Amino acid sequence: MHRSVYVHVPFCRHRCGYCDFTLVAGRDDLADRYLAALDRELDRVEPPEAGGRRELDTLFLGGGTPTRLTGPQLDRLFASVFRRYQLGEGAEVSVEANPSDVTPELIDRLADAGVNRISLGVQSFDAAALKTLERDHLPADVPRVLETVRRRIDNVSLDLIYAVPGQDLAGWEETLDAALALEPTHLSTYGLTFEKGTAFWSRRRRGELISPPEESERDMYAAAMDRPAAAGLRQYELSSHARPGFECRHNRAYWSGDEFEAFGPGAASLLGGVRRMNHRGVLGWLRRLEAGESPWIEEEALGPADRARELVMLNLRRVEGIDGEDFPRRTGFKIDELLSEELLEQQRLGLVERDDAGVRLTREGRFVADGVMSAFL
Ligand code: SF4
Protein backbone atom coordinates (compact mmCIF):
# COMPACT_ATOMS: atom_id res chain seq x y z
CA MET A 1 0.00 0.00 0.00
CA HIS A 2 1.41 3.40 -0.92
CA ARG A 3 2.43 5.86 1.78
CA SER A 4 3.96 8.51 -0.48
CA VAL A 5 2.16 11.09 -2.60
CA TYR A 6 3.50 13.54 -5.16
CA VAL A 7 1.49 16.53 -6.40
CA HIS A 8 2.70 18.31 -9.53
CA VAL A 9 1.98 22.06 -9.62
CA PRO A 10 2.57 23.13 -13.24
CA PHE A 11 2.90 26.90 -13.01
CA CYS A 12 5.94 29.10 -13.54
CA ARG A 13 6.40 32.78 -14.15
CA HIS A 14 8.61 32.03 -17.13
CA ARG A 15 9.92 28.84 -18.73
CA CYS A 16 13.67 28.70 -18.09
CA GLY A 17 15.54 27.87 -21.29
CA TYR A 18 16.80 24.49 -20.05
CA CYS A 19 13.55 23.24 -18.57
CA ASP A 20 11.45 20.50 -20.18
CA PHE A 21 9.13 19.85 -17.24
CA THR A 22 5.38 19.73 -17.62
CA LEU A 23 4.23 23.29 -16.95
CA VAL A 24 2.63 26.43 -18.31
CA ALA A 25 4.45 29.75 -18.01
CA GLY A 26 2.55 32.98 -17.54
CA ARG A 27 -0.81 31.17 -17.30
CA ASP A 28 -1.67 31.74 -13.66
CA ASP A 29 -5.23 32.30 -14.91
CA LEU A 30 -5.47 28.48 -15.13
CA ALA A 31 -4.72 27.93 -11.45
CA ASP A 32 -8.33 27.75 -10.26
CA ARG A 33 -9.23 25.29 -13.02
CA TYR A 34 -6.13 23.27 -12.08
CA LEU A 35 -7.20 23.13 -8.43
CA ALA A 36 -10.72 22.02 -9.35
CA ALA A 37 -9.29 19.31 -11.65
CA LEU A 38 -6.82 18.21 -8.99
CA ASP A 39 -9.69 17.84 -6.54
CA ARG A 40 -11.45 15.60 -9.07
CA GLU A 41 -8.31 13.56 -9.60
CA LEU A 42 -7.96 13.11 -5.85
CA ASP A 43 -11.57 11.87 -5.80
CA ARG A 44 -10.27 8.81 -7.63
CA VAL A 45 -8.24 7.75 -4.58
CA GLU A 46 -9.69 4.62 -3.06
CA PRO A 47 -10.27 5.05 0.66
CA PRO A 48 -8.80 2.38 2.93
CA GLU A 49 -10.98 -0.68 3.56
CA ALA A 50 -11.53 0.35 7.14
CA GLY A 51 -12.80 3.75 5.94
CA GLY A 52 -11.40 7.19 6.74
CA ARG A 53 -8.36 8.62 5.04
CA ARG A 54 -5.18 6.97 3.82
CA GLU A 55 -2.12 7.66 5.93
CA LEU A 56 1.04 9.12 4.42
CA ASP A 57 4.69 9.05 5.41
CA THR A 58 5.66 11.58 2.74
CA LEU A 59 3.93 14.24 0.69
CA PHE A 60 5.88 16.18 -1.92
CA LEU A 61 4.67 19.24 -3.84
CA GLY A 62 6.88 19.77 -6.87
CA GLY A 63 6.69 21.55 -10.15
CA GLY A 64 6.73 23.79 -11.93
CA THR A 65 6.68 26.15 -9.01
CA PRO A 66 4.25 25.27 -6.21
CA THR A 67 4.90 28.65 -4.61
CA ARG A 68 3.51 30.31 -7.74
CA LEU A 69 0.05 29.60 -6.30
CA THR A 70 -1.47 32.32 -4.13
CA GLY A 71 -1.94 31.73 -0.40
CA PRO A 72 -5.66 30.90 -0.70
CA GLN A 73 -4.89 28.59 -3.64
CA LEU A 74 -2.29 26.74 -1.59
CA ASP A 75 -4.84 26.39 1.23
CA ARG A 76 -7.26 24.91 -1.29
CA LEU A 77 -4.66 22.47 -2.58
CA PHE A 78 -3.83 21.22 0.91
CA ALA A 79 -7.53 20.96 1.78
CA SER A 80 -8.04 18.74 -1.30
CA VAL A 81 -5.12 16.50 -0.40
CA PHE A 82 -6.05 16.24 3.28
CA ARG A 83 -9.66 15.36 2.49
CA ARG A 84 -8.33 12.04 1.17
CA TYR A 85 -5.06 11.61 3.04
CA GLN A 86 -3.80 12.20 6.55
CA LEU A 87 -0.24 12.53 7.71
CA GLY A 88 1.22 9.68 9.73
CA GLU A 89 3.34 10.29 12.82
CA GLY A 90 6.49 12.23 11.85
CA ALA A 91 5.50 12.47 8.16
CA GLU A 92 7.72 14.50 5.85
CA VAL A 93 5.94 17.23 3.86
CA SER A 94 8.17 18.89 1.25
CA VAL A 95 7.48 21.83 -1.01
CA GLU A 96 9.68 23.12 -3.81
CA ALA A 97 9.99 26.89 -3.55
CA ASN A 98 11.34 29.63 -5.78
CA PRO A 99 13.48 32.04 -3.72
CA SER A 100 11.66 35.00 -5.33
CA ASP A 101 8.32 33.82 -3.96
CA VAL A 102 9.40 33.42 -0.33
CA THR A 103 7.74 35.80 2.12
CA PRO A 104 7.07 35.40 5.86
CA GLU A 105 3.34 35.02 5.05
CA LEU A 106 4.01 32.20 2.56
CA ILE A 107 6.22 30.33 5.02
CA ASP A 108 3.66 30.76 7.84
CA ARG A 109 0.99 29.39 5.55
CA LEU A 110 3.06 26.38 4.52
CA ALA A 111 4.18 25.63 8.06
CA ASP A 112 0.59 25.92 9.32
CA ALA A 113 -0.44 23.40 6.64
CA GLY A 114 2.13 20.92 8.01
CA VAL A 115 5.03 21.56 5.60
CA ASN A 116 8.30 20.70 7.36
CA ARG A 117 10.79 20.63 4.48
CA ILE A 118 11.52 23.25 1.81
CA SER A 119 13.49 22.57 -1.32
CA LEU A 120 14.78 25.94 -2.48
CA GLY A 121 15.61 26.41 -6.17
CA VAL A 122 18.79 28.43 -5.60
CA GLN A 123 20.65 26.94 -8.63
CA SER A 124 23.77 29.10 -8.30
CA PHE A 125 25.51 31.76 -6.24
CA ASP A 126 27.05 33.21 -9.38
CA ALA A 127 25.03 36.09 -10.84
CA ALA A 128 26.24 35.32 -14.39
CA ALA A 129 25.18 31.66 -14.12
CA LEU A 130 21.78 32.68 -12.75
CA LYS A 131 21.35 35.03 -15.68
CA THR A 132 22.29 32.29 -18.16
CA LEU A 133 19.80 29.97 -16.42
CA GLU A 134 17.16 32.74 -16.74
CA ARG A 135 16.41 32.71 -13.03
CA ASP A 136 14.72 35.67 -11.41
CA HIS A 137 16.59 36.00 -8.13
CA LEU A 138 20.08 37.21 -7.21
CA PRO A 139 22.71 35.38 -5.13
CA ALA A 140 22.50 38.09 -2.48
CA ASP A 141 18.79 37.27 -1.92
CA VAL A 142 19.45 33.73 -0.72
CA PRO A 143 20.68 34.31 2.88
CA ARG A 144 17.65 36.52 3.61
CA VAL A 145 15.29 34.00 1.99
CA LEU A 146 16.81 31.21 4.04
CA GLU A 147 16.40 33.21 7.23
CA THR A 148 12.74 33.75 6.39
CA VAL A 149 12.19 30.03 5.79
CA ARG A 150 14.03 29.02 8.96
CA ARG A 151 11.81 31.12 11.18
CA ARG A 152 9.32 28.27 10.84
CA ILE A 153 10.93 25.43 8.85
CA ASP A 154 14.50 24.42 9.56
CA ASN A 155 14.83 21.47 7.17
CA VAL A 156 15.92 23.20 3.97
CA SER A 157 17.46 21.75 0.85
CA LEU A 158 19.34 24.01 -1.54
CA ASP A 159 19.15 22.85 -5.16
CA LEU A 160 22.15 23.71 -7.32
CA ILE A 161 23.07 23.29 -11.00
CA TYR A 162 26.59 22.85 -12.36
CA ALA A 163 28.10 22.70 -15.85
CA VAL A 164 26.31 25.92 -16.78
CA PRO A 165 27.70 27.48 -19.99
CA GLY A 166 30.37 29.97 -19.02
CA GLN A 167 30.96 28.34 -15.61
CA ASP A 168 34.37 26.94 -14.69
CA LEU A 169 35.42 24.66 -11.85
CA ALA A 170 36.43 27.56 -9.61
CA GLY A 171 33.04 29.21 -10.15
CA TRP A 172 31.21 26.00 -9.25
CA GLU A 173 33.34 25.51 -6.15
CA GLU A 174 32.47 29.04 -5.06
CA THR A 175 28.78 28.22 -5.45
CA LEU A 176 29.19 25.02 -3.45
CA ASP A 177 31.08 26.83 -0.70
CA ALA A 178 28.53 29.66 -0.56
CA ALA A 179 25.73 27.10 -0.26
CA LEU A 180 27.53 25.09 2.43
CA ALA A 181 28.34 28.24 4.40
CA LEU A 182 24.58 28.63 4.88
CA GLU A 183 24.53 25.22 6.61
CA PRO A 184 21.60 23.62 4.79
CA THR A 185 20.39 20.24 5.99
CA HIS A 186 20.38 18.98 2.40
CA LEU A 187 21.97 19.79 -0.93
CA SER A 188 20.95 18.61 -4.40
CA THR A 189 23.50 19.06 -7.19
CA TYR A 190 22.45 18.51 -10.79
CA GLY A 191 24.54 18.70 -13.93
CA LEU A 192 22.82 20.88 -16.54
CA THR A 193 21.39 18.80 -19.36
CA PHE A 194 20.29 19.99 -22.78
CA GLU A 195 17.00 18.28 -23.51
CA LYS A 196 15.69 18.12 -27.03
CA GLY A 197 12.88 20.62 -27.56
CA THR A 198 14.19 23.17 -25.05
CA ALA A 199 15.42 26.62 -25.98
CA PHE A 200 18.87 25.68 -24.62
CA TRP A 201 19.04 22.69 -26.95
CA SER A 202 18.47 24.96 -29.99
CA ARG A 203 20.82 27.63 -28.68
CA ARG A 204 23.59 25.07 -28.22
CA ARG A 205 23.06 23.81 -31.77
CA ARG A 206 23.40 27.37 -33.02
CA GLY A 207 26.63 27.73 -31.05
CA GLU A 208 25.19 30.39 -28.73
CA LEU A 209 25.68 28.23 -25.63
CA ILE A 210 28.80 26.19 -25.03
CA SER A 211 28.98 23.60 -22.26
CA PRO A 212 32.13 23.37 -20.14
CA PRO A 213 34.55 20.71 -21.45
CA GLU A 214 33.83 17.12 -20.39
CA GLU A 215 36.90 16.98 -18.18
CA SER A 216 35.82 20.11 -16.35
CA GLU A 217 32.30 18.69 -15.91
CA ARG A 218 33.84 15.59 -14.36
CA ASP A 219 35.84 17.75 -11.94
CA MET A 220 32.66 19.62 -11.07
CA TYR A 221 30.90 16.37 -10.19
CA ALA A 222 33.90 15.36 -8.07
CA ALA A 223 33.64 18.69 -6.23
CA ALA A 224 29.90 18.11 -5.81
CA MET A 225 30.73 14.87 -4.01
CA ASP A 226 33.72 16.03 -1.97
CA ARG A 227 32.88 19.53 -0.74
CA PRO A 228 29.53 18.65 0.89
CA ALA A 229 31.17 15.58 2.47
CA ALA A 230 33.90 17.78 3.97
CA ALA A 231 31.13 19.98 5.43
CA GLY A 232 29.33 17.03 7.06
CA LEU A 233 26.73 16.33 4.37
CA ARG A 234 26.86 12.66 3.41
CA GLN A 235 26.16 11.76 -0.21
CA TYR A 236 23.32 9.25 -0.25
CA GLU A 237 22.33 9.38 -3.91
CA LEU A 238 23.99 10.42 -7.17
CA SER A 239 22.90 14.06 -6.76
CA SER A 240 21.83 14.24 -3.11
CA HIS A 241 23.71 15.05 0.08
CA ALA A 242 22.33 15.41 3.58
CA ARG A 243 23.22 15.83 7.22
CA PRO A 244 22.60 12.47 8.89
CA GLY A 245 18.86 12.05 9.41
CA PHE A 246 17.89 14.70 6.82
CA GLU A 247 17.87 12.53 3.68
CA CYS A 248 14.72 13.23 1.65
CA ARG A 249 12.40 10.44 2.74
CA HIS A 250 10.11 10.95 -0.23
CA ASN A 251 12.87 10.45 -2.78
CA ARG A 252 14.38 7.62 -0.79
CA ALA A 253 11.04 5.80 -0.92
CA TYR A 254 11.06 6.23 -4.71
CA TRP A 255 14.63 4.96 -5.13
CA SER A 256 13.85 2.05 -2.83
CA GLY A 257 11.04 0.98 -5.17
CA ASP A 258 8.18 1.76 -2.77
CA GLU A 259 4.77 2.36 -4.28
CA PHE A 260 3.58 5.94 -4.63
CA GLU A 261 0.63 7.84 -6.01
CA ALA A 262 1.06 11.04 -8.01
CA PHE A 263 -1.38 13.74 -9.12
CA GLY A 264 -1.29 16.55 -11.65
CA PRO A 265 -0.28 16.81 -15.29
CA GLY A 266 2.58 14.52 -16.32
CA ALA A 267 2.61 12.80 -12.93
CA ALA A 268 3.49 9.08 -12.80
CA SER A 269 2.30 6.61 -10.14
CA LEU A 270 3.30 3.09 -9.18
CA LEU A 271 0.46 1.22 -7.53
CA GLY A 272 -0.05 -2.52 -7.21
CA GLY A 273 2.84 -3.10 -9.62
CA VAL A 274 1.14 -0.94 -12.26
CA ARG A 275 2.83 2.19 -13.55
CA ARG A 276 0.45 4.93 -14.71
CA MET A 277 1.29 8.16 -16.45
CA ASN A 278 -1.00 11.18 -16.52
CA HIS A 279 -1.53 13.27 -19.65
CA ARG A 280 1.63 15.33 -20.04
CA GLY A 281 -0.03 18.48 -21.36
CA VAL A 282 -1.47 20.78 -18.71
CA LEU A 283 -4.52 21.57 -20.86
CA GLY A 284 -4.95 17.95 -21.92
CA TRP A 285 -4.90 16.82 -18.29
CA LEU A 286 -7.35 19.60 -17.34
CA ARG A 287 -9.79 18.80 -20.12
CA ARG A 288 -9.81 15.10 -19.36
CA LEU A 289 -10.67 15.65 -15.73
CA GLU A 290 -13.21 18.36 -16.56
CA ALA A 291 -14.90 15.92 -18.92
CA GLY A 292 -15.05 13.32 -16.15
CA GLU A 293 -12.41 11.18 -17.88
CA SER A 294 -9.33 9.46 -16.50
CA PRO A 295 -6.14 11.57 -16.59
CA TRP A 296 -4.07 8.50 -17.47
CA ILE A 297 -2.62 8.16 -20.93
CA GLU A 298 -0.40 5.17 -20.23
CA GLU A 299 -0.84 2.18 -18.02
CA GLU A 300 1.70 -0.60 -17.85
CA ALA A 301 1.72 -3.65 -15.63
CA LEU A 302 5.38 -4.62 -15.47
CA GLY A 303 6.24 -8.31 -15.41
CA PRO A 304 8.34 -9.57 -12.46
CA ALA A 305 11.67 -9.47 -14.38
CA ASP A 306 11.02 -5.97 -15.73
CA ARG A 307 10.07 -4.73 -12.28
CA ALA A 308 13.23 -6.23 -10.87
CA ARG A 309 15.39 -4.59 -13.55
CA GLU A 310 13.69 -1.27 -12.92
CA LEU A 311 14.47 -1.65 -9.25
CA VAL A 312 18.11 -2.24 -10.12
CA MET A 313 18.17 1.18 -11.87
CA LEU A 314 16.47 2.93 -8.97
CA ASN A 315 18.57 1.24 -6.27
CA LEU A 316 21.82 1.97 -8.08
CA ARG A 317 21.11 5.69 -7.72
CA ARG A 318 21.52 5.21 -3.97
CA VAL A 319 25.05 5.25 -2.58
CA GLU A 320 24.25 2.08 -0.63
CA GLY A 321 23.11 0.51 -3.91
CA ILE A 322 21.11 -2.71 -4.13
CA ASP A 323 20.45 -4.33 -0.79
CA GLY A 324 21.28 -8.04 -1.00
CA GLU A 325 18.39 -8.96 1.35
CA ASP A 326 15.77 -6.39 0.44
CA PHE A 327 16.06 -6.90 -3.33
CA PRO A 328 15.04 -10.61 -3.39
CA ARG A 329 12.30 -9.89 -0.86
CA ARG A 330 10.79 -7.22 -3.13
CA THR A 331 11.32 -8.89 -6.48
CA GLY A 332 11.62 -12.65 -5.97
CA PHE A 333 14.98 -12.56 -7.81
CA LYS A 334 18.51 -12.83 -6.51
CA ILE A 335 20.66 -10.13 -8.09
CA ASP A 336 22.94 -12.74 -9.66
CA GLU A 337 20.06 -14.57 -11.30
CA LEU A 338 19.07 -11.43 -13.11
CA LEU A 339 22.32 -9.79 -13.98
CA SER A 340 25.35 -11.97 -13.50
CA GLU A 341 27.19 -11.31 -16.79
CA GLU A 342 26.48 -7.60 -16.92
CA LEU A 343 27.48 -7.34 -13.31
CA LEU A 344 30.78 -9.12 -13.79
CA GLU A 345 31.63 -6.89 -16.71
CA GLN A 346 30.87 -3.68 -14.77
CA GLN A 347 32.79 -5.08 -11.82
CA ARG A 348 35.76 -5.86 -14.05
CA LEU A 349 35.66 -2.26 -15.29
CA GLY A 350 35.77 -1.04 -11.67
CA LEU A 351 32.40 0.69 -11.97
CA VAL A 352 30.44 -1.60 -9.66
CA GLU A 353 31.40 -3.31 -6.42
CA ARG A 354 29.70 -6.11 -4.56
CA ASP A 355 29.93 -7.72 -1.15
CA ASP A 356 27.62 -9.55 1.24
CA ALA A 357 25.54 -6.41 1.81
CA GLY A 358 24.77 -5.94 -1.88
CA VAL A 359 25.86 -4.25 -5.09
CA ARG A 360 26.65 -0.58 -5.62
CA LEU A 361 28.37 1.85 -7.94
CA THR A 362 31.96 2.60 -7.08
CA ARG A 363 32.97 6.25 -6.90
CA GLU A 364 34.27 5.86 -10.47
CA GLY A 365 30.94 4.31 -11.45
CA ARG A 366 29.06 7.38 -10.22
CA PHE A 367 30.77 9.52 -12.87
CA VAL A 368 29.31 7.32 -15.61
CA ALA A 369 26.16 6.18 -13.83
CA ASP A 370 23.86 6.46 -16.86
CA GLY A 371 26.15 4.23 -18.90
CA VAL A 372 26.44 1.63 -16.12
CA MET A 373 22.68 1.53 -15.67
CA SER A 374 22.01 1.16 -19.37
CA ALA A 375 24.29 -1.88 -19.35
CA PHE A 376 21.82 -3.48 -16.95
CA LEU A 377 18.75 -2.77 -19.08
S1 SF4 B 1 11.37 27.65 -12.41
FE1 SF4 B 1 11.98 25.47 -12.43
S2 SF4 B 1 10.19 24.35 -13.17
FE2 SF4 B 1 9.88 26.53 -13.67
S3 SF4 B 1 10.62 26.75 -15.75
FE3 SF4 B 1 12.33 27.27 -14.40
S4 SF4 B 1 13.44 25.32 -14.12
FE4 SF4 B 1 11.42 24.81 -14.96
If you had to describe this structure to a student in words, what would you say it looks like?
With 377 residues, this protein is an alpha/beta fold. It has 2 domains: 4-255, Alpha-Beta Horseshoe (pyruvate-formate lyase- activating enzyme); 304-375, Orthogonal Bundle (Arc Repressor Mutant, subunit A), CATH 1.10.10.920. 40% of the residues lie in helices and 23% in strands. The protein is built from 15 helices and 17 strands. The strands form 4 sheets. It has a 9-stranded mixed β-sheet with strand order 9-10-8-7-6-5-4-1-11, with helices on both faces. Strand 16 and strand 17 form a beta hairpin. The longest helix has 17 residues, at 214-230. The chain is globular, with a radius of gyration of 21 Å. It starts with a strand and ends with a helix. The relative contact order is 0.11. The model has no long low-confidence stretch (mean pLDDT 96). Iron/sulfur cluster is lined by residues 12, 15-16, 19, 21, 23, 63-65, 98, 121. Iron/sulfur cluster (SF4) binds at residues 12, 15-16, 19, 21, 23, 63-65, 98, 121. Probably acts as a heme chaperone, transferring heme to an unknown acceptor. Binds one molecule of heme per monomer, possibly covalently. Binds 1 [4Fe-4S] cluster. The cluster is coordinated with 3 cysteines and an exchangeable S-adenosyl-L-methionine. It is found in: Cytoplasm. This is Heme chaperone HemW. It comes from Alienimonas californiensis. Belongs to the anaerobic coproporphyrinogen-III oxidase family. HemW subfamily.
